[in-house]
User: What shape does this take?
Amino acid sequence: MKTDIEIAQEATLWPIEKVAETIGLTREELELYGNYKAKFSDEFINRVKDNPDGKLILVTAINPTPAGEGKTTITVGLGQAFGKLGKKAVIALREPSLGPCFGIKGGAAGGGMAQVVPMEDLNLHFTGDFHAITSANNLLAALLDNHIQQGNELRIDTRQITWKRCLDMNDRALRNIVIGLGKKTDGFVREDHFVITVASEIMAILCLSKDMDDLKDRLSKIIVAFDLDGNPVTAGMLKAVGSMAALLKDALKPNIIQTLEHTPALVHGGPFANIAHGCNSVRATHTALKIADYCITEAGFGADLGAEKFMDIKCRMSGLKPDVVVLVATIKALKYNGGVPKSEVSKPDMDALRKGIVNLEKHIENLQKFGVPVVVTLNKFITDTDDETNFVKDFCENMGADFALAEVWEKGGDGGIELANRVLQTLESKQSNFAPIYPLDISIEDKIKTICTEIYGAGDVVFEPAARKQMDTLTKLGFDNIPICMAKTQYSLSDNPALLGRPSNFTITVRDMYVSAGAGFIVVLTGDIMTMPGLPKQPAAYSIDVDKNGKITGLF
Assistant: This one.
C-alpha cells in the first residue's frame, strides 16, 4: 500500500495559474511561489468583495484518538466530490504547524486520495507565513526588552510582563526560561517563556483581520505587560506596530494550492484549536465564499473545541454564518471512546461501539444548539463491519441528523459522492438558524460556565486563585464583553484526557486566563494544557529524510 507522501509525489499537478483560472483569477492577480502555489493579490480580493456569498459548509469531528479522525481528509474529499458533481466548490483549510509534523500527529494535508498538494511544501515551510508570524512575535518581544534596557520610559513592571516569545516547534525545554544573564548590556535578568507559534496572539490576529488597517489596529492593542501602577502596556505604546505589519504584509494574503483532483484549496493561517481558536483566516473564508458556490472549511480537533470557537469567535467577529455542519466520526474512535485500547479498535466490538457512541451523541446535540443542520459522516475503514455502520446510521437519524458514508481516503472524490449529495440535500431541505451559544454582555465567569456546562457537559467549574484574580483584573479593565477561547485537551469533553465517551458530573478546573486584546478574546487555561507542547519518546522526525535528489520520505 502506498503512503500518503508517495501518492502525493506521484500525482500530476496543474500549474497553479490553471487552477486559479477555474475560479476566475488572472495571472496578474496571483503572486507565484513556484509552479504550484501562490498568494491572492489584494487587488483580486477587492475585485470580488461585492460578489454574492456561496454556501458555507463547516467540517468538524468527534473527540479524536491520538492519530486524528481524518477531518481534513473528509474536507478535501468532499471538495473533490463536489467537483465530480459539477459544482463550483473551494475548500478553505489551515496551514500545518511543524510541531505535530515532527512530533506524533504528522502533517495536515489530508490523506490517501484526498490530499492537498504539493504535500511536502505545505507541511514544511510553505509560503513562509508561519516564519513571518514568528518573526513579528519575537520582534515585539525584542522591542519590549530593549525598551526596558534603554531606560524603561513606560515604567514597565518586569514582574508583570505577559508577552512570550514563540517558535513553531514542540520544545518543552523552552516553556520556562531565564533571559538577560551575563553583562549589564545583556539586558535585565527575568523569567521568560515560549509558546508554539500556532498559539501566538499574532497568529490569531492574522486569522481574524479583514485587511491591513484591521491588522494594524489589532496589533496596536496587544497587551505586552503592565506598568508599576497596574495599567496595560501595549504594542502600540512600544511603537512596534509598523515594523510588525511590514513583516506580516505578505502573510496576510491567502494562499492557493490544489487537491489531487485540482479542486482549488485556500490554505491560510493555522491556530491550534486546543490552545487557540482553531480556524483558518477570515480573509480566506470570505474570499472562498465570493468565488465559489460552496466553501468547505474545517475547524480543529473535536466540535467541543474547533466548532465552538468557529461559531462563538470567528463567526461572531466576521459575520460568517454556517449553512450546514459535517460531523466526522470513525468506528475506531467510537470504540476508543467506549473503552477499547487504541491497539484493539480495528476488531469488531458492538458493545464498545454502543458505549462509545455517546460521544457522538453529545457532539450532535452541541451542534444543534447553534441552530445549524448536521450531517454525520463516517470516515470508512476496511475493518468497519456493516452491522457497526448501520448502527451508527440509525443512531444519527434518530437524533435528527442526516448521515452518509465517506470513502475518500481510498477513492478520492468518487468516495465522497454519497456525502456530497447528502450535504446538498440537507442544504436544500433544512434552514440554518445560526446563533452563538452565549451573549457577550454576560460576565466572564458566566461565559466560561456556559461553555463548560452546555458544550462539555460539566457539572461544575472551579477557578483556582490565579484565575479568579485574573478574571477580576480583566473585568476591571473592561474586557468582560469579549468572547472566550478555551484551552483544553482535545481527547475528552472534560479537561482530563482519560475521561472518554460522554462523562458527566465532572469538574472543569480553570487554572489561569489572559486577554488577547488584539485578537479580541480571553484565553482560558484548563487542566494540564500546555501552550508549548513537547516531543514524544519516538518523534516522527526520526523517520523523515531526504535523498541526494531532494526527494523527501517519511512525511505523513
Summary: The longest helix spans residues 129-149. The chain has a mean pLDDT of 95.
